[in-house]
TrEMBL record:
Database matches in Pfam families: Rubis-subs-bind
Extent of Acidic residues compositional bias: 232-245
GO cellular component: nucleus
Location of the SET domain: 18-293
EC number, as in UniProt: 2.1.1.-
SUPFAM superfamilies documented for this protein: RuBisCo LSMT C-terminal, substrate-binding domain, SET domain
Role noted for this protein: S-adenosyl-L-methionine-dependent protein-lysine N-methyltransferase that monomethylates 60S ribosomal protein L42.
UniProt-listed GO biological process terms: methylation
Biased composition regions of type Basic and acidic residues, renumbered to the chain: 219-231
Cell compartments where the protein resides: Nucleus
Species the sequence originates in: Leucocoprinus leucothites
The protein's name: Ribosomal lysine N-methyltransferase 4
Length: 496
């Protein structure tokens, strides 16, 4: 890494190399990462990166050279396609690129190969059936962007993109590599507040559908220590993701690995620089971790190509951040098989109303084993009688999320049907000898088991609640009967 560090420092960046060392970990632990070379106190700046050294559609000269209007006309201001093209172009420019020490082959700091499912064959992808990974891969959409936006843009400017470079630097294969580098290593770097005059060469319009990796905090914790570790970032992140020109590659910051709830360093931004600052004291020899958010294994695998395994609150091991998605469609389908009444137009009317009011169409189960209130409310909405539905619509209030009656059976069936999306059972998966499996199959198995554990936990809890509820209502009705017969006999006595 000496060549990379020399390049980094010669471009206005600062590295405290008495505190941070770059080392190689085993493949299973993420290859390269950073460790503390001595005890590091909280709020210590490990390195600073000038904004100009981050690589984005704002900092690369390409959008300007291409022409801002032409850039937008070609659709390069939406999603990641513009940044991918900038990275390809900077790489093709070799030693004349400002990022030669970052994108070049020597020194080599960015990977050309990934363990992410984007690069898996059909056989390995089949192991992920039932998980949310496959439909979120977006490979086909990415390829459409390549064919309809990037390639025509490249071919339209042979002065910028040499025709001889097409197969080396602008191929579909390189496009996927650059996309995966962004997915696993990019940060969302907002403009400095009040920096109105900053030259935003690429423009800001457009939506992006893909998410980027890590977040950056606004202030240096040395100036505002209270902000360190606060959880308000995810909200900001969603807003930031709306502006593709905020997505940036940040040399050095992307060397830090991540693990569930171990973050001890975070990137903060100032007017001219980004700073990686320790958010906890770090002991000499400890790894320096930067969070990617505590993500479920399905997301870790899709974006980064690894999974987390830790002790779980309910016992056993897995990723405590795991979740299972249940589509509203599945509930509709389960209910229609239970009851004729909510089929067709009637259900559609209620679903449209729910969605228009901002209701979710995907419900997320997690290790709490609590059915999400929105899922209960949505299910109840479909079960309302015509009269109740009219009342709810008039009052603009969805049903209260209280578990009762037919809901138990419908939710239990929904979870059982969700289980059937996976080709294997939890028991079969558990019996698999993980140690002997190749990496992709092993990671897919861990994702599957994690999701099925959550389904199993939710199913068992629902069954227990149903039983308790029916015992309680049976007791209640017995008491009511006893009270009735008591009061009626008392009545008789009085009459006598
Ligand atoms: C931001 S980069 C970190 C630097 C990276 N290790 C490298 O060698 O360049 C993120 C990538 O590191 C790896 N990684 C990070 N944390 C990991 C972990 N806890 N276990 C395994 N791999 C990890 C994954 O390959 C991920 O895509």
């Amino acid at each position: 890494m000496d060549g990379f560090i020399a390049w980094f420092q010669s471009h206005g960046a600062h590295l405290d190399n008495s505190s941070l060392g770059i080392v190689d970990f085993p493949l299973s632990e993420g290859r390269r990462g950073a460790i503390a070379l001595k005890d590091i106190p909280e709020c210590h700046t490990l390195f600073t990166v000038p904004r100009g050294l981050t690589l984005s559609t704002r900092t690369s000269q390409l959008p300007k050279r291409f022409g801002v209007d032409a850039w937008q006309k070609a659709g390069l201001h939406k999603g990641w396609v513009g940044l991918i093209l900038c990275m390809m172009w900077e790489q093709a420019n070799g030693s004349s690129s400002r990022w030669r020490g970052y994108l070049g082959k020597d020194p080599k700091t960015l990977p050309d190969e990934f363990d992410t499912p984007m690069f898996w064959g059909e056989d390995d992808l089949a192991e992920l059936k039932g998980t949310s990974v496959v439909e979120k891969l977006g490979k086909a959409d990415a390829e459409v962007d390549y064919t309809t936006k990037l390639l025509p843009a490249v071919k339209s400017r042979p002065d910028l993109f040499l025709p001889n470079d097409l197969s080396t630097y602008y191929s579909l294969g390189v496009y996927h590599i650059m996309g995966s580098r962004i997915l696993s290593r990019s940060f969302v770097v907002e403009k400095w507040n009040g920096d109105e005059d900053e030259d935003d060469a690429a423009g800001t319009a457009g939506n992006i559908s893909m998410e980027s990796a890590m977040d950056v905090d606004e202030k240096d914790p040395n100036q505002d220590p209270d902000r360190v570790g606060h959880e308000e970032d995810s909200e900001d992140e969603d807003e930031d993701e709306d502006d593709p020109s905020d997505v940036a590659m940040v040399p050095m910051a992307d060397i830090l690995n991540a693990r569930y709830q171990t973050e001890n360093a975070k990137l903060f931004y100032e007017k001219d620089v980004l700073k990686m600052v320790s958010t906890r004291p770090i002991k000499s020899g400890e790894q320096i971790w930067n969070t990617y958010g505590d993500l479920p294994n399905a997301e870790l695998l899709r974006r980064y190509g690894h999974v987390d395994i830790l002790p779980l609150p309910s016992g056993g091991s897995g990723n405590p951040a795991d979740v299972v998605e249940i589509k509203a469609d599945l509930i509709v389908s389960v209910i229609s098989s239970f009851l004729e009444a909510v089929k067709g137009d009637q259900a559609k009317e209620r679903i449209d109303w729910w969605l228009e009011a901002g209701g979710e169409d995907i419900f997320v189960l997690d290790h709490d084993f609590e059915v999400p209130p929105a899922m209960i409310s949505f299910t109840k909405l479909l079960l309302l009688s015509e009269k109740e539905w009219e009342k709810a619509r008039k009052k603009s209030t969805p049903p209260k999320p209280k578990l009762e009656g037919a809901l138990y059976d419908i939710l239990i069936s929904t979870i059982e049907r969700r289980f059937a999306d996976y080709p294997t059972t939890l028991e079969t998966d558990r019996a698999c000898p993980t140690g002997s499996l190749p990496l992709n199959k092993r990671q897919a198995l861990i994702v599957r088991i994690g999701e099925k554990d959550i389904l199993r936990g939710n199913l068992q809890k629902l069954k227990t609640l149903k039983e308790t509820d029916s015992i309680r209502s049976a007791q209640g009705s017995n008491k009511r009967k006893a009270a009735l017969s008591d009061s009626s006999s008392k009545g008789k006595r009085i009459r006598r």
